Each structure stands twice: as structure tokens, then as C-alpha cells.
Amino acid sequence: MKPASQPKKTAITPTRGENYAEWYQKVVRAADMAEMSGVRGCMVIKAWGYGAWELMQRELDRRFKETGHDNYYFPIFIPLSYFQREADHVEGFAKEMAVVTHHRLVKKDGVLVPDGELEEPLVVRPTSETIIGESMSKWIQSWRDLPLLTNQWANVVRWEMRPRILLRTVEFLWQEGHTAHETREEALTETKLMLEVYRKFAEDYLALPVITGEKIAAERFPGAESTLCIEAMMQDGRALQAGTSHYLGQNFARACNIQFQNREGNLDFAHTTSWGVSTRLLGGLIMAHGDDDGMKMPPRVAPHQIVILPILREDSPKQEVMDYCESLKKELQAEMFDGQPLRVKIDVRDIAGGEKRWEWIKKGAPLLVEVGPRDVEGGKVCLTRRDQLGAGKRFIARNEFVKSAATELAAAQKALFDAVLAFQRSRTVTDIKDWAAFESYFAKDADNSFTAGQGFVRAKWSGDPASLAKLEPLGVTVRCIPFDQSGTKGVCVLTGAPATQEVIFARAY
Asked: What confidence tens digit (pLDDT) does each residue in 63-73 have?
């Protein structure tokens, strides 16, 4: 009688299939990307996570500047009266606002207490439409001053009641673009352009396939006339809103008095936009690419694309191994990937080789190169590709590896994208036509849909806002109206009424 097979040992427990939510938290820690701080709901982004964010920032900043945008910086404190000018906007953020009411502390009975009440409360920046609009009203006088294309890299504060590291925290980092235009058509073109910038960035740089579309009215940014978005699928089938681009119409221009003399000599209000992505993309990378051994970092966003691990033993010549690693690093750094020198690190820490190797596997370094005395003697390296961990190690001639390193990275980048795209397609259901089937689909184990097989339902919807109440008990929302519409006639999956428009239904983060 054969002995029962043992379950595969993994670096992360519980596994995705056992408890997806806890798995995510464990990967964040094991990859050493971030941790919660002593301040409720706020996080510390550590070197590996912040290094990835810096690369995202650098790449997005390049793309923004290529499209004509300049970086500015605006105050973190916004007078409450600025928000009150735009009723829908303040209502949308009211429950998340942190408000400063005093400007100093004094000691009373040995205890520090607030003192010096402000004449007007200041909101700690949850978003900057109103304060940037105030500046735009001073800078824009004529149609010749348009378009005004600004971007800001900043932190924001939204008082989350249920924080989740990297996904929803009280304070997080982001960029927010804000632009003003002469006409509606120009502003709408800008809104679509920036969404396309985000789509290409997500897919080409983060290896994260996304669905592009428009939010329904109930899901729009507060005060916007139209919100466009990119939606990504995580490995538990839930959606992650990975970026948004908003056409604000003339609403904020009226509230902030952004007026200009048009070509006919009359006063008109500018048409404005805003758009942004944040550090929640780091969480999205983990949930899209991670496995039960940790993170798999796409090469384009990995702070170190190649990590060299010297194997040093007491009974072998250490200096020869280190010299070999140093010269290998220099040769690799002379090679290019995406027009940039390869990012290479030698891990010289004095810890056990196996422990060191697994630390980098859990971090998701794309290529791990181990070098011991025998490799030096034979002019070889021992290579592990993180996205092919199950394939094991490969011994390759040093010169061959140096020449092929960029090709290996490109292949890993593509493989990660292809895997997530295949998963997204496998978990997108298009044959649900009525409420009974819809309800049954989302009634599966909502706490761990990694194994329940949930994902996106693409189905017809009549557009009746009252019908959305049926979704609330299921925790499902309409994620977007995809741009690629068939236009065929059908029936609304929620009501049975005639419908031609298709939408994406899903649970979301």
C-alpha cells in the first residue's frame, strides 16, 4: 500500500487556497514590502516596496511629461470652505476627512491639550481638486492660457474605517493630475488619453492586464460628469480599481471661478479633468502575481532584477568567489533591458545560503544567481528564474548568461502578463442571463473565492439605478461599462427588462 502523498511544502502559510486574505498579509510581510505603523491605519513602506514604487513613479512621470504635463506641488491643508463650494464633492468625501481645528498644544495639569483654535478648519488633503482649482482661477485669464496640464506627486489622507495594508490605508502615496481646457471635447480627449496612459503602464510595465471602461453614475468620482477606469482581476476573482480618469465638466470651474475670455471675447468656464493612481498598485502586484512561495515581481518594476548570491564556505577560497561575483555584476550592468542598465545586487550578508535564497524568492527577485567555488572553477552560474521556480535551477556558462540575461527578463515579464491574462479570461463569465443564475454564482464561498471560482460576470444591464439594490446583499458592484460593446439586444440580468449595454459585475477591493 502506497503511503499517502504529503502536501507540497510552501514558504507561505496559509496558502491562497486555504485563506486568501491571510495569505496576502503574509506575503506583504514575507516580501518585506510594508508593515503597519504605530499610527492607526498608517503604514511604513519598506525598501523593497518603496523601490518598486519609485520605479513606477519614474516611469509614469516620464509618460506624463511626454504628454505635455508638468509637476507642481500644492498644500496638504485645504480650507473647509473650499470643499463647501462643491456640494457633491464634499458629500462624497465627508466621512473620510481628517480635519485640523487647532494650531498648537499647551500643557494643562501636566497633560498636553489642543489650544489655539483656527478661524477656519483645515482639511488634510483627501484629494486636491478644490485647492488646485483655486490656483487655476488665478493663472487662467484667456483661452491662450489653456490647456493647463498639471500633475502632483503627494500623500493623501482618507480616514479608512477598515484599513488593509497597501490597499486601503489612512495615508497613502499617489499622483493626481489636474488639467483645465477650453472646450468639452478637449477635456474629454484628455480624460481618455490619460486612461490609455494608465492602461499601457499597467499592462506593459506591471504585467497587469486590465479592462477599460466607464463607471456607472452610482460609482463616479464625487462631482464628476464621467469617470473612466481600469479594472484588474486579483487571484481571488475580485476586482481592483487600478486607476481612474475623470471628466469634471465645468462643475469645479464654477465652484472655483476658473473663468477665461474665450475666442469670441466672452467669459466662459474651463472644462477640467483629474486622474490618478496610488500605492495600492503595490498591493495589486502581490494579489495578481504572488504565489504560495511569496511574491513574483515583474522585472520592469523589480528594484533588483538580478540578485547574485555568493556561496562562501570556510574550506574554500572566499575572495575568488567574491571577485567572480563582482566582475559578473559589472558585466551584467553593462547589458541593457528596456534601454536601462540591468539592476544587479550582490547579497553579501553573512547568513546561511539557503535562508538567503528563500528571502529573495519570497521577495520575488526575477533572477537569482548562485555562485560557489565550483561555478568559479567551471566559469558557470547557477540560475533560478522566480516565475519558473518549479523548474528548478539551471547551470549556465557565465558568458552565455550575461548575453541572455535581458532576454530572460523579457521572457519573465511576458510570462507573468500571460498568466494573469489567462486567469482573467478563465474567471470571466459571459453566459449568465438571469437573476437566479447570477445570485447562485455569487452565493459561492465569498470569504475564499480563490477556491470557489468566482470572478467577473459580464452581462446585460438596463441602466435602472433602482435595480442595483439587489446587488448589496451579495457585496457585488458594477465595476465598469467596458468600452468594447457588442450592441446586441438581450435582457437585463437583474430585472429581465430589455437591454443592450453590457457591464462587469464583481466583488471588489
From this structure: 999 999 999 99
